[in-house]
C-alpha cells in the first residue's frame, strides 16, 4: 500500500510513501501522518490518496499515524486542489493556509498574556485618591495610571463598589493606549499600585442558550427582500443582496440563518475585517448563543485547533462567524454561506501564498456542498454586480434605510481653494471643525477618515530636501511619533529619527503629509474637549484592542473616532451624525485599474456610518477635485451611474469583469538578473498569449525586503480555457528557470489581483 501526501512546504506536487503493514488499516484520505524527508527531517503530512500503484523510485515508510480520525474532510481536499489549480500555488501552501499551526507540528500550547490590575489595597475610592497624590511628582506615571483606571472602569469607584463592570486590561493594551513605555508600567508595579497576572488568550465561545425569540420582526422592505432572496435561491446558487447602508441587511441574514438551522444545516457567515466580528458577535450571540463559533487570525493557535476539532466532532458549531480564513474550516453539513461586504478587497489574501479570494473560495465550497451563497453589500464589486445583471447570479435590491432614515447629506469641500486662501487648519477645513464641534456639543459623535496610518508619510530636510528611505525597500519611511521611530510599511524595519540631516547636517527635519496619528494629535489640540480614539493597524494589534475601541465608541466613552479604512466597513454606531473624509484624492489617483472602484466604495461606505436612529447624517468630503465624476457620483449616491461608467472603461481596456487578470511577479537580489529574466519570460508568454501580455515593468514599489521586482500582466478573456492558459504559464516559467543564471529567481502568480 502507498499514500500520496501533501507536505506543508511550498513545493509542487504530491509525495509518495509506502505504508507499513501495521498501519495499513489506519490510513485513509484526510488523516495526518508523520513522514521523513531528507536525511533527518520529519513533517506532519496530510494523506490525499491511498493506492497500490508502485512508483518507479524507492519509497520511505510513513512513521506514524497522528490520530484515529481524519483531520481534513474529502470535500476540503477537493477544495484545496481547486485552490492550488486556480491560484497557481503549490498544494503545500494551501495546506499551510488552511490548517492551524498546532495541527502541523503537534507543538501547540495555550497562549497567555500579561494583564494589569489594581493591587487589593487600592480597590476603593479613598485609596485611589491616595495613589493619585503619590504620583503627583511623576506625571507620566500618573497619566498611565489614569488611563488604566479609565480602561478598566475602576474610575467609576464609589466607596468600595464600582458602578461599572470591571474590564480586564492587558499590559500591551495599556502601553498602546497610553503611548508609554513598558518601564513606566513597571514603575507602577514596583510601587505596588498595580500588579500583574497571566490570562489565557482565547477560549471557545460559551455563549449560553440560543434565544430565537430575540429575532426581530422584519419591516415591509426587509420582508420583501427576504422573500425575494428565498425565491432567487430556488433558481440560482449565488444571490446578490444590494442594500443601501443601514437598510437592515443583518436582520435579513439572521432570519435566513434561523431558517437554515431549522433545516438542520450549518451556516458560514464571512466578514472582511476582524473589527466587524466584534459587533456582529454580540448581535448573533443574543440569538444563537453557544451554537455560534468565531474564527479568525487574531485567535490563538490553541483556540483555532480546538475550533477545528470541534467542527469535526459530533457537536460542531452550527453557525461560524469569521474573516477570510474561516472559509477553510471543515463543515459537515453546510447549507448557507453569507458573504457580507462582499466588495471588500481585504477578502483577498496578498501574502503569503495561496493568494486566494475568500469570496471565490466560499462560492466554490458552497457549490461543492450543494449550499446557497448570499453576497451582501451597499456597493457591489464590479464582478459581482455584472454577474447579477447578466443573470449568472440572482439579484435582490433593498433601497430603503431602516426606519426610513435618509441617506446622508454629502457636502464637498474644495480644499485647494481653502489652501490658496490659507484657511485650512492642518488637514481640517473650517466647515469640518465647526460641524464636528457642534455635533460633540450636542452629545453626538463624529468619525474622521484618513486612509493612511502613522504620523507623517515622509520626513524631509527643509534645507536640502533629503528624505529618509528604507534600506531594504524603495519607499520613504513613515514617521510614527508615539514610537519616535521611522518605519517601513513594507518590510517592517524601524529606524531611529535622526537628529540632523546626514546630507547637509541641517536640523530642520519636518514630517510631510498626514497619517491617522497626526490627525489624532492635531484634532486633540484644536478640540481638547473631544474624547478621541484611533482605529488603525497600530492600535488594533490584539483582538481585545478591537473590542475595547468599538465598545468604548458604541457606549459613548469616546465620541470622536479617527481611523483608516477600518472605520468604513459596516460598523453600526447609533449616534454618529458627522463623518469627515479628509483627503479623497489620495484614493482616486493610485496607479491601478481598480483605483476608482476602491475609492467610490470606501467613500460611500464611510459616508454610510453617518445618520442613524432617526436623524440624517452629514458627510464633509474634502477634495482638491470637486468636479471629479467619481466624487459627484458619491455625493449623489449614484452607484448605478458609477457602475455603467466603469463598465464601459473596463470593456474598452479589457479588464475585469470582461477578462481574468493574472499578475506574474519575479524577484531577485540583483536588478539586472530579474530584468533579464522578466524580458525572457515576456518573450515566451507572447508566443502563446500575443497582445494579452503587458510588461515586464517595474511595479510602484520596485524593491521590497532587498529583492528587486518585475511584473507582467496577462489578461485572459472570459470563456478562454483557463486550464490550458495555466499550463502555458507554467511552461514559460520552467523554460526561464532552466537557465542557470535564473535558478535563484523567485516567481509567483497573483490570480484575480485586488
List its traits:
single chain, 754 residues, alpha/beta, 7-stranded parallel β-sheet, 6-stranded parallel β-sheet, 23 helices, 22% strand, globular
Ordered list of secondary-structure elements with their pairings:
Elements: E1 2-6, E2 15-18, E3 32-37, E4 41-51, E5 64-65, H1 74-86, H2 91-98, H3 102-105, E6 111-118, H4 125-134, H5 139-152, E7 157-158, E8 161-162, E9 169-170, H6 171-178, H7 182-190, E10 194-201, H8 220-235, E11 238-243, H9 249-262, E12 266-270, H10 274-288, E13 292-295, H11 301-312, E14 319-322, E15 334-340, H12 358-369, E16 372-377, H13 382-389, E17 394-398, E18 409-414, H14 415-420, H15 430-441, E19 445-449, E20 458-461, E21 478-480, E22 485-487, E23 494-496, E24 509-512, H16 516-526, E25 532-535, H17 543-554, E26 560-563, E27 576-581, H18 585-588, H19 595-607, E28 618-623, H20 629-635, H21 639-653, E29 659-668, H22 671-689, E30 693-697, E31 703-704, E32 707-717, H23 722-737, E33 746-751
Parallel strand pairs: 11-16, 11-17, 12-14, 12-15, 13-14, 15-16, 18-28, 19-26, 19-27, 25-26, 27-28
Antiparallel strand pairs: 1-2, 1-4, 3-4, 3-5, 6-9, 6-10, 7-8, 20-24, 21-22, 22-23, 29-32, 29-33, 30-32, 31-32
Helix pairs in contact: 1-2, 1-12, 5-6, 5-7, 8-9, 10-17, 19-20, 22-23
